[in-house]
Amino acid sequence: MLQHSERDYLVVRVAGPGEHVAVEPFTDVAIDVDVVFDFDDEPSAQTT
């Protein structure tokens, strides 16, 4: 999730498949990430 600032956009939340997220300014609204994005054809992200 990105937040617009005067200078640029900032990453405020990273979410993946199976997560429900709520970020400012809409903290009362949770979004099911699986509904917004189609993860069926995407490889899983690798973190280190």
What does this structure look like?
There is one protein chain. β1 (2-4) and β2 (9-11) form a beta hairpin. The protein is globular, with a radius of gyration of 13 Å. With 48 residues, the protein is mainly β. The protein contains 1 helix and 4 strands; from the N terminus they run ββββα. The chain has one domain (2-36). The strands form 2 sheets. The protein has a two-stranded antiparallel sheet with strand order 1-2. The chain has a two-stranded antiparallel sheet with strand order 3-4.
Task: Write a concise keyword list for the protein shown above.
48 residues, mainly beta, two-stranded antiparallel sheet, two-stranded antiparallel ribbon, 1 helix, 4 strands
Structural class, from helix and strand content?
Answer: mainly beta
Biggest sheet: strand arrangement: 1-2
Continuous helix count: 1
Major sheet summary line? 2 strands, antiparallel
Radius of gyration: 13 Å
Would you kindly provide a brief summary of this structure?
The chain is mainly beta. The chain has one helix at residues 33-36; strands at residues 2-4, 9-11, 20-21, 31-32. It has one domain (2-36).
SSE layout and pairing:
Blueprint: E1 2-4, E2 9-11, E3 20-21, E4 31-32, H1 33-36
Antiparallel strand pairs: 1-2, 3-4
